Write a sequence for this structure.
């Protein structure tokens, strides 16, 4: 594969696409598939065949279009977007291709949900068929890899990433360029690249969506990273709970190998890169890099103390670069447009865009990509469309079990790594759950503590015992049998876990408790002193169900 | 140092063991392939029993304790066969605040089993998932591999009725 050959594939693909007068894109990402979008796609195929339109109209399965709650979603090349489409609607939509869109199914795209987003990571989502490499190549895919291989040296690539100001999208926000240069400088015969696709945060589905909608973008990012740091082998550690993402990644790897974009002597250079999948088996702690490495090695996913950092001694004891899916997905555009371009988006310390999985008590649930520095209010009320059923906003939870709950007074705060940390939460991987007055914040804190307790690997005592004790205390508070000393003990344990746990799981496990203690102290007080749950959640679930 | 090592024969003539062998071979019969191999066993046999764990442990030359340790560490692996039907309730944050606990208590109330258990007649297994990533459709439930979104306790009970009615 040479750059010329790649360009030829792109040209051919664009030519093929241009032959069609019409195009119907059906979302075939997991959200819409669970609303039977596959049968919608089949209905379009059948209808097109019945009409003899095979040369006139293309129907295509594409990735996520964002507004998951309104699926199945269908878009046309004319720019119409349809929601809640069923197989029976296919004929009517095809009839309307030359005229006005079918009004009863139209989903308006002139609303803030679509207008306020800025798509870099998701630029191909919902437009290209994730199961065809030609489509990715047709939209400039693998062009960045070609440029890197033919025009740049590894230090120049690292420099470009440094210049972009990109920070790790897995949650901690470590500067990506710095990580790359550490691995590049590390001494070692073999170096490894790992893509962390073990999206463990409950309430987050950004990585799944990227892998299902545009898997080649992640592969291209990994290839560029491998070239920059001098690695020749890589692993994608993906959750076994995401069968569709796994299937599409496998297809993507096979296709890239067939075109000579993965494998030995890529593009006629001395650069070789092989990539394989490793399936996670359901352990939240494996999001922690040393635990993830243990799991890739086929062991129990328990973390180990750092240093040595994986950049020096990682997988099989060799220097290893670990980045998150979204981080890799940002690499190709950075190379294509330059680090300078990327650094102009976002805030001073948090560059670029961030993908959020917006869910919970909010009107428009789905996947959104916004520039860093946008306010929480804009995300929840403009893009998210506010709280349904006329209820009141209570809190927004970011960062999952390691993050915190922020009340209304923080709605105008810009969303960037530093501001969120200062407010007692974290950026996290991008889960954003909106809560209204029907949620009890003590119950939410208990939910996360229960999660951390179950997911604690058991290696270090503060986390193993501490999460259990905190969960017991929170249970007592929600059952309204707790006493004021229990509350004091809870606060003390927060401090202990934070300062003495071995890895990020234990260190950050108190965050949901600390943030709710800080901003919703009156709710704790009501449970402990007045023996009542203001939201009416605690203790009522069993009665409601029966 | 190399030692002579002859590969053990599979526990039975079941052809599915060939799939397991293929996975181990692909990963060079190396101990680092343990998790991948257990995935294959679970995919083909539905669960990991002692026989399978012993066979994999010997084949990959790891102590049985390590194979058992890995199998019990990860939630995805199960040591017990599942019921005829499975009902997985997502307990992700979005599902939790949109009513997953009510779904779970409805199941517990009707079937009289806890998450992770199977009804005495082997018909239905109830499981919980940390997050299915279908947060836009919260609360989500997986009925026998099909994800259903925006599930209410009534929907759930209807499905349970269908399962028990059709099969009896």
């Amino acid at each position: 594969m040479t750059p010329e050959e790649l360009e030829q594939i792109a040209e051919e693909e664009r030519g093929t696409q241009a032959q069609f007068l019409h195009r119907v894109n059906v979302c075939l990402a997991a959200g819409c598939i669970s609303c039977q979008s596959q049968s919608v796609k089949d209905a379009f195929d059948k209808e097109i065949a019945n009409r003899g339109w095979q040369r006139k109209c293309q129907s295509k399965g594409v990735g996520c279009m964002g507004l998951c709650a309104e699926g199945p979603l269908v878009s046309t090349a004319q720019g119409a977007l349809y929601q809640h489409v069923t197989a029976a609607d296919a004929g009517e939509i095809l009839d309307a291709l030359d005229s006005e869109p079918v009004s009863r199914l139209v989903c308006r795209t002139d609303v803030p949900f679509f207008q306020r987003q800025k798509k870099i990571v998701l630029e191909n989502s919902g437009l290209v068929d994730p199961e065809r490499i030609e489509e990715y190549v047709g939209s400039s895919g693998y062009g960045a890899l070609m440029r890197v291989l033919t025009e740049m040296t590894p230090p120049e690539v690292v420099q470009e990433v440094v210049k972009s100001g990109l920070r790790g999208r897995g949650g901690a926000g470590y500067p990506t360029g710095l990580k790359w240069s550490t691995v590049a400088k590390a001494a070692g015969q073999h170096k490894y690249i790992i893509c962390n696709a073990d999206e463990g945060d409950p309430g987050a589905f950004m990585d799944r969506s990227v892998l299902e909608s545009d898997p080649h973008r992640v592969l291209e990012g990994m290839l560029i990273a491998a070239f920059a740091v001098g690695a020749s082998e890589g692993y994608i550690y993906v959750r076994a709970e995401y069968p569709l993402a796994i299937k599409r990644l496998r297809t993507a790897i096979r296709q890239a190998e067939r075109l000579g974009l993965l494998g030995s002597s890529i593009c006629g250079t001395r650069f070789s890169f092989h990539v394989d999948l490793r399936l996670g088996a359901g352990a939240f702690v494996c999001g922690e890099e040393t635990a993830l490495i243990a799991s890739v090695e086929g062991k129990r996913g328990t973390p180990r103390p750092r240093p040595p950092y994986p950049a020096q001694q990682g997988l099989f004891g060799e220097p290893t670069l670990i980045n998150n899916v979204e981080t890799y997905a940002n690499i190709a555009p950075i190379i294509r447009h330059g680090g300078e371009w990327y650094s102009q988006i976002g805030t001073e310390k948090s560059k670029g865009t961030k993908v959020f999985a917006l869910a919970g008590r909010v009107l428009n649930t789905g996947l959104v990509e916004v520039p860093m520095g946008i306010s929480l209010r804009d995300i929840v009320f403009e893009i998210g469309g506010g709280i349904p059923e006329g209820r009141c906003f209570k809190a927004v939870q970011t960062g999952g079990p390691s993050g915190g709950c922020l009340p209304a007074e923080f709605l105008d705060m810009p969303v960037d790594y530093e501001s969120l940390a200062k407010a007692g939460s974290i950026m996290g991987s991008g889960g954003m759950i909106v809560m209204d007055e029907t949620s009890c914040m003590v119950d939410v804190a208990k939910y996360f503590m229960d999660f951390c307790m179950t997911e604690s690997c058991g290696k270090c005592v503060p986390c193993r015992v501490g999460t259990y004790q905190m969960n017991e205390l929170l249970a007592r508070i929600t059952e309204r049998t707790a006493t004021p000393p229990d509350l004091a003990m809870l606060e003390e344990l927060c401090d202990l876990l934070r300062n003495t746990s071995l890895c990020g799981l234990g260190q950050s496990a108190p965050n949901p408790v600390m943030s709710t203690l800080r901003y919703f102290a009156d709710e704790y007080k009501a449970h402990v002193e007045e023996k009542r749950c203001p939201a009416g959640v605690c203790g009522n679930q069993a009665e409601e169900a029966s | 140092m190399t030692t002579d090592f002859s590969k053990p024969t599979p526990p039975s003539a079941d052809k599915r063991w060939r799939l397991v062998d293929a996975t181990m071979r692909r990963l060079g019969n190396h101990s680092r392939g343990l998790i991948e191999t257990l995935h294959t066993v679970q995919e083909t046999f539905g669960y990991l029993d002692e026989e399978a764990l012993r066979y994999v442990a010997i084949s990959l030359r790891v102590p049985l304790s390590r194979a058992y340790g890995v199998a019990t560490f990860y939630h995805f692996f199960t040591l017990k066969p599942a019921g005829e039907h499975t009902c997985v309730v997502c307990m992700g944050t979005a599902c939790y605040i949109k009513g997953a606990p009510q779904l779970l208590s409805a199941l517990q109330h009707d079937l009289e089993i806890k998450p992770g258990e199977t009804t005495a007649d082997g018909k239905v297994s109830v499981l919980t998932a940390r997050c299915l990533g279908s947060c836009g459709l919260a609360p989500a439930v997986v009925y026998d591999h099909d994800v259903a979104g925006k599930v209410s306790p009534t929907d759930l009970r209807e499905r349970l009725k269908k399962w028990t009615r059709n099969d009896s």
